[in-house]
Amino acid sequence: MRWSLARFIYATYEDLKSGKTTDIYFVRTAKILKAYGLDKVDVYAEFTPSSLPKGYPWAVLGGLRDVVELLRGVPVNVYAMPEGTVFFPKDYRGVRTPIMGIEGPYGEFVVYETPVLGFLSMGSGIATKAARVKKAAGDALVLSFGARRTHPAISPFAGYYAYIGGCDAVSCIEAAEFLGMKPVGTMPHSLMIIFRAIKGDHTLAWEAFDKVVEKDVPRVILIDTFLDETEEAIRAVEKLGDRVWGIRLDTPGSRRGDFAEIIREVKWRLSLIGRDDVKIVVSGGIDEYLIPRLKAAGASAFGVGSAISNARIVDIAMDLVEVKVNGKWMAISKRGKYPGRKQVYRCEKCFVDLVVPLNKSEPKCPRCGSPMKPLLIKVLEKGEVAADIPPPQEVRKYVLEQVEKLSLDSVPW
Q: Is the pTM of this model over 0.90?
């Protein structure tokens, strides 16, 4: 048993690659198969969504980047929808949708089922929530402020997939490094509290921020630490003048304030002094359901934390659907699952999906008759990367192009 305060409780890269993050029954399964000489039996394992979070008609595939890294060097072939692909739990005809498949000796990858599902379930959950939030925000900025709401060891993962899903920027430093961009952030209430306690004036903290912080960082002033937000907004503009890019309102709901009404009043007061250009940044309890009301009131940027970093996972399962017997593939699965390999086809006009047995001809869209595009592509061949892994900026663009065609509460068909 491992009990020590000498390290944090988290899995290292080596722990994942060696299979130590798996469920124990997979280790026992591997042992049994090897004892009976069955560990080299080739199988095809299919990954399908068991369910989406309540009320979600679609999800965004996330976590594939890390799945590829986990299985790199393992002698298997992996077929998957491209990272960032929108998928539906079932196709047009009600068949469950495969989003990924692994082909190879079962004994070679049995211990990786657990972490693969973890990457896909959590990555897809975060990317999906971020996509929903960005869909609601439209042209308004969405900033990922969720690092403090998740385990610090995975905050870069959460920030990465928040960006993939549609967030415009992230506050987590290491997530930003993975993304190849600068982290964003404003200032905490603690800064104003210390200046108020020691210097007698919390607004001196605004001036200190302006003097000390790099000039390319937008001056977004937090205005709700002590006094009325409308009065504070005017004071901030008077102190820093044209250098004020925006003001931030944080959790007025905790003081029973009407968030939308406060935004309207602040916008009105700023307009009276000719500062319609000042952006209103809001944070604290923000999600896709609240955003439309706050945006209508005048908010132009949203800092979103818990809603994305603690997003409900997408429940994904792995099931064997083919086994190689005497050199031939046998379609076989447990009850309730559809045996045999499949391809997923999509009509890019109607956004209709069809799941088709792999040996069948390419279908036409059942709605418009157009040719359909296959979605599952080979990403690993015998453990070697077999497809281009696009940078996160391209994946984010791909996500937003798809989400633009979708509704938050219904499938396109």
A: yes
